[in-house]
Design goal:
The protein has 795 residues and is of the alpha/beta class. Helices cover 39% and strands 9% of the residues. The protein has a 4-stranded mixed β-sheet. A 4-stranded mixed β-sheet has the order 11-10-9-12. Strands 1-4 form a two-stranded parallel ribbon.
Length: 795
């Protein structure tokens, strides 16, 4: 009987939707993409109006929730292409997806909007949020989901209460309601408080009037701004370098693309414009025809061919201007000016090495960079990645994962990172060793096209075990002496601030900063070239956000190997007697199989470290020695503990006295804006949640150790998904700090927010948000972008 009830409900709802379509067709004509695309180009006055009034509203009120893959209803509003693409009812982050989703690549790199590119998206389930029926003022509002949603908020603003009621669901994994325009009346009746911006204050009267006028006039958006003459000159130089026809040149270009395809490239220090490196079916000088594939190593050929031809390129590497709104959670800036042009030429093109054949694009081979790029010297590849190591690590922090607690519970909440020196390639990992073990370094993406790809998991586990045994045996055969196991093994950076990094995990997102930032962490990673390359091809190039559950689980499980290997590298520099106790402390509460997975008996036979330790806490000593070795003391602007610049810094530093057990009451990321007259200073409070271990896939809460939590108090903005905002006058700062340190219960925290917080319900919320973004852009221009408000708490 229940089945028939559900069938009736389904048919009823389908019937309502069909009636809605018929009604709209009758009133405004049938929906057709060509109706919008046939609009005339924006006039000068329309361009000025859009740039000065409309775009700032869309960015600061809409994009702050609608950007990246985790945008509600897949409505990505950071570009014209995303707005025109519209919304989709399907969930991108679906951990229960049994089959790979049939969704095409993002439109963010589309150079022009055409029926041929938008119509397939309609067939995949994307529906318009702008009017695609008759282009009249009435239709442009009444048949526009965009207009209906903001109008609903004007009609039903937030209740005048500090906390939202149960009528609002602001949880990240809430059931999304994604009505089409034809379904809007049903949505409106069921969710009268569901207008946009959702669970945030309404637009001001002025903002609403401006948006309404723009929508009524056809929501015309100007064409993207082309590169200017100076930028075009640089583009031409890069494209000349990247589109050589020899086997060596083609292979280098493929390597660069597969590592830089997510980068926001900039040519000068002012970062006045950003560019994207894309593959095109057209040569330099012609109109770019972007080749969109789900992964950067998928075949770029229209006929599905997997073979490249020497001296006859069929794919071209092009630079296009990136006109999308810069959103902080995806912003990965990368220098691409004169210095980088010279550096890449020096590393890859000038050395004399032979490339006689080109690798194919078969998945089993293309997903393994050690096979694909074997002809390029490993040391050159490693040095390229190290030069911008923060970017290299940031790719898996800000890349296609975008959000994922399952993907990120494989790492500790706070750890430090440094690297083996490329000058050690005569020892480990030598080029010969990598070549000999290439097949063992196969990554999970190789079987992601298999229906039951998770069944291949044991093969990867066995390969990793064999690889580790080979690595230990190889190091043993080197017969390293104690005096050789020293700080010289670590890349000093020679003045490069990327030589040491800090990673903060914020539950299902993360941040990576230059230098050692925040309190001393429990663990650290010492990364070698094979590790750094595998991290990229596991979590970035080889990660399919639309992949099935098998692909996502394999990715998470494989990352365990890489984390433990990086940790083991670090431990090898500690006194021999301390290695096992430290490792066991990191993996409390887990079984012996996991403990011994990386630390085989042979590992303990490595020689004693040559580093001289003076205290009973060698790990802390090593951190200090590495900091000095990499000269990172003043790399970071975020630490305030040792370099307090003001009275506010000193007061904020006192928050470190908060009891460990109280830290768990705080959200993952909080921003505190301190106001002193017309001067503002932002601080970040980052909650580092302790765990007995991070070796298990599920039951994370069961491994929590609140008594070991700590709080990083940082100068500036860290993290791109804030959970809470506080605004404090300088004269009240001492009181704020005292009350924060004193919180012991949820009620204490709520009372603290009553006095100092800018909650999501605050009438001044948008004023504060604008103030915060202006501060961010002014004081941290290298990393700034629009923050994401999807994780703001309701407490």
């Amino acid at each position: 009987m229940r089945k028939f009830q559900w069938l009736f409900i389904f048919l009823f709802l389908s019937g309502c939707a069909t009636l809605g379509v018929m009604e709209f067709d009758k009133l405004y004509g049938p929906s057709n993409i060509d109706n919008r695309l046939a609009q005339p180009k924006a006039t000068t006055s329309q361009v000025i109006n859009f740039n000065e009034h409309i775009q700032p509203i869309i960015e600061n009120r809409c994009v702050v929730c609608h950007g990246c893959y985790d945008a509600p209803c897949q409505l990505k509003m950071e570009s014209r292409a995303g707005i025109e693409r519209g919304a989709n009812k399907a969930m991108v982050y679906n951990g229960e997806r049994l089959l790979t989703a049939k969704i095409s690549a993002s439109l963010s790199k589309l150079t022009e909007l055409k029926t041929e590119s938008l119509q397939p998206l309609r067939e995949q389930g994307f529906f318009p949020v702008l009017n695609e029926r008759q282009q009249t003022e009435q239709a442009n509002t009444q048949a526009s989901l965009f207009y209906k949603m903001i109008q609903l908020k004007q009609q039903h603003p937030l209740p005048n209460e500090p906390l939202l009621s149960n009528d609002f669901d602001v949880s990240l994994d809430r059931n999304q309601q994604c009505p089409t325009i034809e379904e809007f009346e049903q949505y409106k009746n069921k969710f009268p408080l569901g207008g946009m911006p959702y669970a945030l204050p309404a637009l001001s009267t002025t903002e609403h009037t401006q948006l309404t006028g723009w929508l009524a006039s056809g929501a015309i958006m100007p064409d993207a701004i082309p590169a200017n003459a100076k930028e075009q000159k640089m583009i031409t130089r890069w494209e000349a370098l990247l589109n050589g026809s020899s086997a060596k040149e083609q292979l280098i270009s493929r390597y660069l693309f597969e590592h830089l395809y997510l980068a926001n490239l900039y040519f000068d220090k002012t970062r006045s414009s950003y560019f994207k490196l894309v593959r095109s079916s057209t040569a330099s000088g012609e109109k770019v025809a972007v080749i969109n594939t789900r992964r950067p190593f998928d075949s770029p050929y229209a006929d599905g061919s997997v073979n490249a031809i020497i001296n006859k390129p069929q794919v071209y590497y092009r630079l296009i201007k990136h006109n999308d709104t810069i959103i902080a959670k995806r912003h990965m800036p990368y220098p691409f000016g004169e210095k980088k042009l010279a550096r890449i030429t020096e590393i890859f093109y000038q050395p004399n090495y032979a490339v006689t054949t080109l690798p194919d694009y078969q998945l089993i081979n293309a997903s393994n960079p050690f096979k694909t790029f074997q002809a390029i010297p490993d040391k050159a590849r490693y040095q390229f990645l190290l030069d911008q190591a923060q970017f290299s690590i940031m790719n898996f922090i800000k890349g296609p994962v975008c959000r994922g607690q399952i993907a990120l519970n494989v790492i500790e909440d706070n750890f430090w990172v440094f690297f083996l020196s490329p000058d050690n390639f005569d020892h480990y990992p030598s080029e010969d060793f990598i070549t000999a073990n290439t097949d063992l370094l196969q990554l999970p993406a190789a079987t992601s096209d298999k229906t039951m790809s998770l069944l291949y998991w044991r093969q990867y586990a066995k390969r990793q075990q064999k690889y580790v045994k080979n690595k230990v045996a190889y190091i043993k055969d080197l017969n390293l002496q104690s005096n050789e196991l020293n700080l010289d093994l670590i890349w000093s950076g020679k003045g490069n601030p990327n030589a040491s990094l800090t990673v903060f995990r914020h539950y299902d997102s993360a941040s990576v900063l230059q230098g050692f930032v925040g309190p001393t962490p429990k663990t650290a990673w010492l990364i070698s070239y094979p590790l750094l390359e595998r991290i990229h091809y596991l979590l970035v190039a080889g990660f399919d956000v639309y992949g099935n559950v098998g692909h996502q689980l394999k990715t998470r499980l494989y990352m365990d190997f890489l984390r433990m290997e990086a940790e083991s590298n670090f431990i090898s520099l500690l006194p021999k007697a301390q290695r096992k106790p430290i490792h066991e402390y990191w993996y409390r509460g887990t079984n012996s199989d996991i403990k011994d997975y990386i630390f085989s008996d042979d590992f303990y036979q490595l020689p004693e470290t040559g580093i001289k330790y003076q205290t009973a806490k060698p790990q802390n000593e090593l951190f200090k020695k590495v900091a000095k070795h990499t000269k990172n003391t003043h790399v970071s602007q975020f630490n305030i503990s040792s370099l307090a610049r003001s009275k506010a810094d000193k007061l904020m530093g006192n928050i470190s006295n908060i009891p460990n057990d109280s830290v768990a009451l705080l959200p993952q990321v909080s921003y505190v804006m301190v106001s002193n007259g017309d001067k503002l200073q932002a601080y970040s409070l980052v909650n580092n949640s302790a765990h007995s271990n991070v070796a298990h896939l599920f039951s994370e809460e069961n491994r929590r150790l609140p008594a070991e939590d700590n709080l990083a108090i940082l100068r500036g903005i860290v993290g791109t998904y804030p959970n809470a905002f506080f605004k404090v006058e300088q004269v009240q700062l001492a009181e704020f700090v005292e009350r924060l340190i004193a919180i012991r219960t949820e009620q204490d925290y709520s009372q603290l927010k009553d006095q100092f917080a800018i909650r999501r319900t605050n009438p001044d919320f948008w004023k504060f948000a604008d103030e915060l973004h202006v501060w961010y852009k002014t004081n941290q221009p290298k990393s700034s972008g629009l923050l994401d408000f999807n994780r703001l708490e309701n407490r």
